[in-house]
Amino acid sequence: MVSKNEMKLIKQLEQKKYRERYGLFVAEGPKVVGDLLKCGFRAHKMFATAAYCGPSVPTGVQPTEVNEEELRRISFLQHPQQVLAVFFLPPHAASSSGLLPQPQGLCLALDGVQDPGNLGTIIRIADWFGIDTIYCSADTADAWSPKVVQATMGSIGRVAIHYGLLSEVLTDTTLPVYGTLLDGQDLYAQELSPEGIIVMGNEGNGISPEIRRLITRRLFIPSYRQGDTAESLNVAIATAITCAEFRRRSF
Taking residues 39-67, what's their average pLDDT? Predict the structure, then answer.
């Protein structure tokens, strides 16, 4: 059974201020919860139906068994998936201020990506292409909201997300700073390095003027339709295409 206090806490964690206050976030479904446990995330509370409890429960985890109706009342999903867990936030997510780690290897930087679905998909793309770090501007959607966590399908456990001033990261680095821009050069014809920061911008406005000035290598994803065509690509799609081309090259 879920107590009133437990239900209140879970519902509060939909809001960023409570996630930061308590240092907790919510994940749902056997796939997402299972991946986070495998990645070493600590569960504060776990609620699961009889279909999940039993042999499928990871060693050392003791969920509170609930019925379908109880799970539906605490779930953020339209169709709850057997288990909901409240996890402790990782150390790098405890604060959006302070010094950001120096970028190494190939990284992503998100400048005002505001749609939770896009952010979750980008985190999943980073995981797929072996990108371990994503830097986010303060106005980028919060990676630990229930919608984003769900959209990552567990990838958030394998990618470090850091919030702060992108301008500081891009100014201090010695790595090349790539950005996809309408006045950039054909992505497929440019020299790409195995290390660097790929900047992706806001869904409607693209990369902000402040960050655009810090880009050292401008890229453009060409359209292959002549004449009228789509005005632009979805930011998550553009991220996938760009990351795929970086990883396709033989360095």
Answer: 83
